[in-house]
From TrEMBL:
The chain crosses the membrane at residues 162-181. It is found in: Mitochondrion membrane. It comes from the Eukaryota. GO terms for biological process: calcium import into the mitochondrion; positive regulation of mitochondrial calcium ion concentration. Pfam families: CCDC90-like (PF07798). This is MCUR1 regulator. The gene is Mcur1.
Length: 182
């Protein structure tokens, strides 16, 4: 409600030429208009109790979302851990295959090298012109051995890069989740 001296307003109106009845009707109409306007203003305003209730509801929703996020984070971390274990097993299998392949290549090369050397020695004893062929064969063998060593080093580096990439990828994802939720 809005309070002001209605009697004083009636007196002012009467002094300015209004009759008592006109003054009272005018003041009554003004009071009704002001009360209606104030009621409309109050209707749009939020009370402190309503504001606190809304705040509690929002805080409750935030708490629920936070719990859901923690649950999601744990399940995502668990999935990431199992994926990491799977990758680790695959890397171990690949490493074993590479080691087996390297061992096989080395033994084949040793056998081939020994066979090639013995064949070259026989050719040297049979013919004097085979000296040049022996030198070329030794060079080929050395080149193949060097190529194989280079290939083995390359495979080692690729395996190390893959392992490092996997580890850094897992660390990056874990740190991302850590930063996201902290």
């Amino acid at each position: 409600s809005f309070f002001f001296d209605t009697h004083a307003l009636v007196c002012v109106l009467e002094e300015n030429g209004f009759t008592t009845q006109q003054s009272e009707v005018t003041v009554s109409a003004l009071v009704k208009i002001m009360n209606t306007n104030l009621d409309m203003i109050y209707k749009d305003m939020v009370t402190k109790v309503q504001q606190e209730i809304a705040l509690q509801q929002v805080m409750s929703h935030i708490g629920g979302v936070k719990k859901d996020m923690i649950i999601l984070e744990k399940s995502e971390f668990s999935a990431l851990r199992s994926e990491n274990e799977k990758i680790k097993l695959e890397l171990q299998q690949i490493k074993k295959q590479v080691v087996d392949e390297i061992t096989k290549v080395r033994s084949d090369n040793k056998l081939n090298l020994n066979l090639e050397k013995s064949r070259v020695k026989e050719l040297v004893s049979l013919h004097a012109q085979q000296d040049r062929a022996l030198t070329q064969t030794d060079r080929k063998i050395d080149t193949e051995v060097a190529d194989l060593k280079t290939m083995l080093e390359s495979h080692k580096l690729d395996t190390i890069k893959y392992l490092a990439g996997s580890v850094f990828t897992c660390l990056t994802v874990a740190l991302g989740f850590y930063r996201l939720w902290m």
